[in-house]
C-alpha cells in the first residue's frame, strides 16, 4: 500500500504525544526528530525534509500549540497543513487553449507511464469536457510504442496520428497538428519518446517538438515508485522544457512517498493528476489535502 511505512511511523510518533496535557519544548523537538527520520526513510529529498521540519517546528513551538489544551491534535494539524502546502495546497486544473486545439505534450522517462497516462487523460477529457482528442505518436524509437498508443486509442475511441518509425518526430507532430486542424479536434495529446535516463539527444528532440507545437501543457509523467529520483529527473526536464505540470503514476503500488512529497517543492510545478492503476479510468485529479490525509492515515 502507498505510504504504508511513512503512515505507520507518523501515527506512532503522534500516539506518543497523546495523553500529554502540555508539551514541553523538548517534547516538540523529540517529535520533530522522529518526523524527520520518517520522511527521510520514505525517501523524501533532504532539503525538502529540512525546510519542512523547520517550518513545522517553528509553528509547533508557537502559542497555537504551547497554549493549547489539546497540543497533540494541534501538532497533527500543523503537520497535516504543512504536508498539504508541500504538495501545492490546491488542485491545479489543466491549462486550456483559448482556441482549439489545446495541445498536451507528455514527457518523461521510459516506463514512467506516458502512453498509459495519455490514454487516461483522453478518457478523462472525453468524459468531463466532451473532448474529441487526437493522439500523435511521436515516439519513433520503439515500434511497440506506436502499437501501444494505437491500442489505447482504440480503447478510448480516439484516433491516433502516426507515420511509423522512419520519420523525424518533429515532422510527424507538424503533420499531426495539420490533421487535427482539418478534423477540428479540440485536444491533441502528443506521446513522446522516453529514455532510461535524461540524455541530450532526447532533450533536443523534445525542445524541437515544443518549439513547433507550442503546447499548452507539458506534463512530466513521473513514476512514484522511483522516490526522490523522480523529483530530480523532473527538475532536469523542467530546466530544459519548462514543464507545466506533473502526473504522478503508480500510486496504487507500495510507493514510500519520496516522489509525492519532493516533486512539487523541487520543481515548483504542480502535480495535476495521479495514476492509480493500469486501467484507463484509473486517473484522478490531484488534491494535496486529500493526499496529506492519506499519508497521515
Ligand atoms: P511509457 O514508456 O512512459 O509510455 O510507459 P507506459 O505507459 O508503457 O507504462 C509502463 C508500465 O506502467 C505499463 O505496464 C503500465 O501499465 C504501467 N502503469 C502506468 N501507469 C500506471 C499506474 O498508475 N499504476 C500501475 N500499477 N501501473 C501503471
From TrEMBL:
The record's keywords, sorted A to Z, are:
Cytoplasm, GTP-binding, Hydrolase, Nucleotide-binding, Ribonucleoprotein, RNA-binding, Signal recognition particle
Q: Where is the SRP54-type proteins GTP-binding domain?
A: 101-297
Gene of this entry: ffh
Could you list the residue ranges that cross the membrane?
none
What domain of life is recorded for the organism? Bacteria
**Primary location recorded for the protein, binned into one broad class:** cytoplasm
Q: What does the entry give for GO biological process? A: SRP-dependent cotranslational protein targeting to membrane
Catalysed reaction, written as an equation: GTP + H2O = GDP + phosphate + H(+)
A single Gene Ontology MF term assigned here is:
GTP binding
User: What GO cellular-component annotations does this UniProt entry give?
Assistant: signal recognition particle
Q: What does this protein do?
A: Involved in targeting and insertion of nascent membrane proteins into the cytoplasmic membrane. Binds to the hydrophobic signal sequence of the ribosome-nascent chain (RNC) as it emerges from the ribosomes. The SRP-RNC complex is then targeted to the cytoplasmic membrane where it interacts with the SRP receptor FtsY.
State its Enzyme Commission number(s).
3.6.5.4
- Which residues belong to any copy of the Signal recognition particle SRP54 helical bundle domain? 2-87
Residue ranges annotated for the AAA+ ATPase domain, each copy included: 100-278
Query: What is this protein's name?
Result: Signal recognition particle protein
The UniProt comment on domains reads: Composed of three domains: the N-terminal N domain, which is responsible for interactions with the ribosome, the central G domain, which binds GTP, and the C-terminal M domain, which binds the RNA and the signal sequence of the RNC.
Q: Where in the cell is it found?
A: Cytoplasm
Q: How does this chain assemble?
A: Part of the signal recognition particle protein translocation system, which is composed of SRP and FtsY.
Entry's family note:
Belongs to the GTP-binding SRP family. SRP54 subfamily.
Q: Where does GTP bind?
A: 108-115, 191-195, 249-252
Amino acid at each position: 500500500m502507498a505510504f504504508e511505512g511513512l503512515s505507520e511511523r507518523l501515527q506512532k510518533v503522534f500516539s506518543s504525544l497523546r495523553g500529554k496535557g502540555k508539551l514541553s519544548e523538548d517534547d516538540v523537538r523529540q517529535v520533530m526528530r522522529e518526523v524527520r527520520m520518517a520522511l527521510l526513510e520514505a525517501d523524501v529529498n533532504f532539503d525538502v525534509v529540512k525546510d519542512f521540519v523547520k517550518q513545522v517546528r517553528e509553528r509547533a513551538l508557537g502559542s497555537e500549540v504551547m497554549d493549547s489544551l489539546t497540543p497533540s491534535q494541534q501538532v497533527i494539524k500543523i503537520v497535516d497543513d504543512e504536508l498539504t502546502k508541500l504538495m501545492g495546497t490546491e488542485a491545479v486544473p489543466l491549462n486550456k487553449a483559448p482556441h482549439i486545439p489545446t495541445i498536451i505534450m507528455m514527457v518523461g522517462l521510459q516506463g514512467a507511464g506516458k502512453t498509459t497516462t495519455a490514454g487516461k487523460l483522453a478518457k478523462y477529457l472525453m468524459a468531463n469536457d466532451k473532448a474529441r482528442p487526437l493522439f500523435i505518436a511521436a515516439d519513433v524509437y520503439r515500434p511497440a510504442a506506436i502499437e501501444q498508443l494505437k491500442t489505447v486509442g482504440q480503447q478510448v475511441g480516439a484516433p491516433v496520428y502516426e507515420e511509423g518509425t522512419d520519420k523525424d518526430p518533429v515532422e510527424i507532430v507538424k503533420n499531426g497538428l495539420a490533421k487535427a486542424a482539418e478534423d477540428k479536434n479540440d485536444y491533441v495529446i502528443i506521446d513522446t519518446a522516453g529514455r532510461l535516463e535524461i540524455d541530450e539527444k532526447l532533450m533536443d528532440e523534445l525542445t524541437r517538438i515544443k518549439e513547433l507545437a507550442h503546447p499548452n501543457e507539458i506534463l512530466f509523467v513521473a513514476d512514484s515508485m522511483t522516490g526522490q529520483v523522480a523529483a530530480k529527473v523532473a527538475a532536469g526536464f523542467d530546466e530544459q522544457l519548462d514543464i507545466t505540470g506533473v502526473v504522478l503514476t503508480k500510486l496504487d503500488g507500495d510507493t514510500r512517498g519520496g516522489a509525492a512529497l519532493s516533486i512539487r517543492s523541487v520543481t515548483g510545478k504542480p502535480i495535476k493528476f495521479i495514476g492509480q492503476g493500469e486501467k484507463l479510468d484509473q486517473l484522478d485529479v490531484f488534491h494535496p489535502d486529500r493526499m496529506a490525509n492519506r499519508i497521515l492515515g
